[in-house]
Design a protein that fits this description.
The complex is a heterodimer of chains A (423) and B (110).
Chain A: H1 3-18, H2 29-33, H3 38-47, E1 50-53, E2 61-64, H4 67-75, E3 80-81, H5 110-119, H6 124-143, E4 151-152, H7 153-170, H8 178-188, H9 201-225, H10 231-237, H11 246-277, H12 279-287, H13 292-303, E5 308-313, E6 317-319, E7 322-324, E8 329-333, H14 334-337, H15 373-389, E9 392-396, E10 415-420
Parallel strand pairs in A: 2-8
Antiparallel strand pairs in A: 1-2, 3-5, 4-10, 5-8, 6-7, 9-10
Helix pairs in contact in A: 1-3, 6-7, 6-15, 7-11, 8-9, 8-11, 9-10, 9-11, 11-12, 11-13, 11-15, 13-15
Chain B: E1 7-11, E2 17-21, H1 28-34, E3 54-57, H2 59-62, H3 70-76, E4 86-88, E5 102-104
Parallel strand pairs in B: 1-5
Antiparallel strand pairs in B: 1-2, 3-4, 3-5
Classes of the chains: A alpha+beta (423), B alpha+beta (110).
C-alpha cells in the first residue's frame, strides 16, 4: 500500500473509533472503493453487531456483521425471506413492479426446483470434464503474457479467463462472449460511481433488455436443436425454466451471469494482490504447491467478492437481543463475517495453510449457498497451478483500483508485471 | 472376553465397503472425514449449512436414526441423488448402539 492509501486508512480507523457507534453507516460505496471498510465493521462486531441504521442511502436496515449471526439468518429462510414478494436479496428496495424474480430471490419450494435444475450444469463430474479445456485456455493465456512489462491483470487475465468459462457453461456463442461481461457490469453498476457504460437507470434498462432479447433468440434456436448439457439448454428445456416469463428469465440470467463472472474474476485479482501483500505466504506456496487448494479458499474468504446479500424478516423476532420487526431488512455483510475473530483466528491475516480453509461466509449458507462454488474454485486452482508450473511470478507494481459499489467487491485495475523465475 | 470394536460401514460408489471404528458422540460426517472416505467434502464443517455431506442410509438403519430436523430437510431438498433414505451425515451423531450402521456415499462429489 502506498503512503496516501495508508494515510486514508489511518484517518478512517481514527474516525471509526471516535464516532458514536449508532452513527456508523456501512451502506457507503466509497468504503469499498477506497478499502476503508475494515475499522467500521471491527467496531460494529465488537459493540453493536446487529446494527440498525435508519438514514442510510437505501433507508433503514440492519447490518448483520458476525459470522454466526449471518449463518443463523441464512439458514432460517422461513423467518428471513429471500423472496421478491418480501423485497428480494438486494440491499436497495425496489417497487414491486421493478423487482425481478430469480432462483436466488425465491424461497422454497419453487427455489429448490430452480436450483436443482442449474446444479446439473455445475455437477462435479461435468467440471472434471471441463478441467482440461479450462487448463488449455489458461496455459495459452499465461504463455502469451508480456514479461517485465506493466499491464492490468484484471483486463488481461481475470476477465478473459472467467468470461471464457462462463460462455462455455452457458453454451453462449464464443465470438460474442464479451457481452456476458458487459451485462454483468451493467446489471449492478452503481450510478454514483464512475461508470463508463451507463449513466441512468434508463440506460441500464436498455442494455438489460438487449440481454433478454439476445437470450430469447438463443432460446428459440435451442428449441429447434434439442437438449445439451449447458445452462442455455436448462433455461430452454427444463421444466423449472422453460415457461418462465421474460422478467423472470432476465432475473435468472442476471443472477447466473453475475454469479459466474464477478465473483471468480475478482478473487483471481484478489489472490494476486494478497500474495503480494503477504510475501511469506507467496514463498510458502512456491515451496509447496499442494497449498493451492487452501490458498484458493483463503483468497475467497479474504476477498469476499460479494459484499452482502439482504433478507427480509417475515415476522417479528429477536436477534442477538435486538427487536427485529416484520418487514425489516437485514443486510448480511459477508465482508465482515469473514473477519470475525471469534470464528477465524487472525482474520485480517492472509494465511494460506489454515486448518479449516472453507470456514468462510463468502458462499453464504443454507438453501441459497452458492451453487457455482466448485466452478469458482476450479478456475482459481487451475490458474495458480499453471502460474507455478510456468515459474511465473506476478508482481503488483501500482495501486489497485476498485469500483464504487455496494454489492460487488472487486477491482477495475491491478497493475502488475510478470517475471519469469525459470533459469 | 475381548469386545468387538463397534464399527460403521461406508459403501463407496464403486461398490466396495470401508469399515471404520465407531466413536460415540462424534458425527457420522466426522467419521468419514477422519477416515478419508471420498465423496464427503463437508464444506461448512458440520453446521447444517451446505448439504455437501449427503449420504444414503441403509433402509434397515434409517428408521432407527434420530429424526431429520426441518433445517436438515430443507437442505436435503436441494441435493442431487435425493432418495427416501437420504440424510446429512453431519446431523447424525454416532451413539454406542449404532454398531454396524451402514451408509452409502452418493456419486455427486466423487
Amino acid at each position: 500500500m502506498n503512503i496516501a492509501a495508508n494515510d486514508l486508512l489511518a484517518e478512517h480507523t481514527q474516525r471509526a473509533r471516535q464516532m458514536r457507534v449508532e452513527d456508523i453507516d456501512v451502506v457507503d460505496g466509497a468504503l469499498y472503493q477506497d478499502g476503508t471498510w475494515m475499522p467500521y465493521f471491527e467496531r460494529l462486531r465488537a459493540e453493536d453487531p446487529v446494527h440498525y441504521f435508519e438514514n442510510g442511502r437505501f433507508g433503514p436496515n440492519w447490518a448483520i456483521t458476525k459470522f454466526e449471526d449471518i449463518m443463523e439468518v441464512e439458514k432460517d429462510w422461513r423467518l428471513f425471506s429471500s423472496d421478491v414478494d418480501w423485497g428480494g436479496v438486494l440491499i436497495w428496495q425496489k417497487a414491486p413492479e421493478n423487482r425481478l424474480r430469480s432462483l436466488i430471490s425465491s424461497d422454497p419450494p419453487s427455489h429448490s426446483v430452480k436450483r436443482k435444475a442449474v446444479q446439473t450444469v455445475v455437477h462435479p463430474r461435468r467440471l472434471q470434464q471441463m478441467d482440461q479445456l479450462v487448463r488449455e485456455r489458461t496455459i495459452k493465456l499465461i504463455e502469451d503474457l508480456p514479461l517485465n512489462e506493466t499491464f492490468n491483470w484484471v483486463e488481461k487475465v481475470s476477465i478473459p479467463l472467467t468470461t471464457l468459462t462462463l460462455a462455455t457453461i452457458f453454451g453462449f456463442p464464443m465470438e460474442h462472449r464479451h457481452l456476458l461481461t458487459h451485462w454483468s457490469e451493467v446489471a449492478f453498476a452503481d450510478l454514483l460511481g464512475d461508470c463508463d457504460t451507463i449513466k441512468t437507470e434508463e440506460d441500464r434498462a436498455v442494455e438489460l433488455n438487449k440481454c433478454l432479447e439476445t437470450f430469447l433468440e438463443l432460446r428459440a434456436e435451442r428449441r429447434r436443436t434439442g437438449e445439451t448439457d449447458d445452462l442455455l439448454s436448462i433455461l430452454t428445456h427444463s421444466e423449472a425454466y422453460r415457461d418462465v416469463d421474460d422478467k423472470e428469465l432476465l432475473g435468472n440470467l442476471i443472477t447466473l451471469i453475475v454469479g459466474g463472472n464477478e465473483t471468480t474474476r475478482n478473487t483471481m485479482s484478489g489472490s494476486v494482490l494478497f500474495l503480494n501483500q503477504f510475501p511469506e505466504e507467496a514463498r510458502k506456496l512456491r515451496q509447496n504447491p499442494d497449498l493451492i487448494n487452501s490458498m484458493v479458499c483463503e483468497s475467497i474468504r479474504f476477498q469476499s467478492p460479494i459484499l452482502a446479500f439482504r433478507r427480509t424478516a417475515t415476522r417479528d423476532t429477536v436477534l442477538r437481543g435486538k427487536q427485529i420487526k416484520q418487514g425489516d431488512r437485514l443486510v448480511l455483510w459477508y465482508v465482515s463475517g469473514n473477519r470475525d475473530s471469534e470464528i477465524i483466528e487472525n482474520p485480517d491475516q492472509f494465511i494460506i495453510d489454515r486448518d479449516d480453509p472453507r470456514k468462510h461466509v463468502s458462499f453464504g449458507g443454507g438453501v441459497h449457498r452458492c451453487v457455482g462454488n466448485r466452478v469458482a474454485e476450479m478456475q482459481l486452482r487451475i490458474l495458480w497451478e499453471e502460474l507455478l508450473k510456468h515459474d511465473l511470478q506476478v508482481e503488483v507494481v501500482g495501486e489497485p483500483r476498485r469500483p464504487y459499489n455496494l454489492f460487488v467487491h472487486g477491482y477495475t485495475d491491478l497493475p502488475v508485471q510478470v517475471r519469469s523465475l525459470a533459469g | 472376553m475381548a469386545h468387538k470394536t463397534p464399527s460403521i460401514h461406508f459403501e463407496l460408489t464403486d461398490g466396495s465397503l470401508r469399515t471404520v471404528p465407531a466413536k460415540a458422540g462424534v458425527s457420522l460426517m466426522r467419521h468419514a472425514l477422519d477416515n478419508g472416505i471420498p465423496g464427503i467434502p463437508a464444506d461448512c464443517g458440520g453446521d447444517c449449512a451446505c448439504a455437501t455431506c449427503h449420504v444414503h442410509v441403509d433402509p434397515g438403519w434409517f428408521s432407527q436414526l434420530p429424526e431429520t430436523t426441518q433445517q436438515e430437510s430443507d437442505l436435503l431438498d436441494i441435493v442431487d441423488d435425493l432418495c427416501d433414505v437420504s440424510r446429512l451425515s453431519c446431523q447424525i451423531v454416532v451413539t454406542e448402539d449404532m454398531d454396524g450402521l451402514t451408509v452409502k456415499i452418493p456419486e455427486f462429489y466423487v
